[in-house]
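Hey, resending since the last one bounced:
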Amino acid sequence: MTQAETSPRCRDAPTPLRKRDRSRAAILAAARRVFSERGFEGASISDIAALAGMAEGSIYKHFLNKRDLLFQVMRQFYERITADVEAEALRRRGVAERLTYVVRRQFEVFAEDKGLCRLFIREIRTADDYYDSLVHELNRRYTATVVAVIKDGIAAGEVRRDVDPRLVRDLIYGAIEHLTWKTVSGGDATRIQAARSAIQKIAPHE
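The structure tokens again:
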């Protein structure tokens, strides 16, 4: 067999970098599931490693500790939903349509990721260093879409100039959290479904 015939097989072999990326992805997927089900305090590195199908020591080749792993799970979570909200809000016209989308999407986030939302409310946000953490920065960027929408509305004359965009942001996300807390803390999903239905009925046609 010639060198030319063996080369394609060599090129198809997994590189160390690709293997490392797959291992990291497997760890993040396992960690997300374990954190969602058990919370931060209830989760262990050994449980995450077992679910990922690797030795416990392998986790530390990719992450400093359990806290670092949690923050990287939350980074992955926030980056996805932030990209969705930023892109989709821009596609809509006017403050009413944009805010309706943001509110509906936030209800979807609570419905789809109850475990991570519960973890954020119960354990991450109550930590002493939350306001200096990566997760706080990610959350600010995610919720900044509402601030931008209100500012655009003020500039366009759709919203009064004395309205505080940050206060509107806090009112929207605080109200949604209040409405969905019973569901994410272990109750049924009827409250989220009812709220989403109400939003759909009062929303402007998109």
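The first helix runs from residue 3 to 12.

Sorry for the duplicate.
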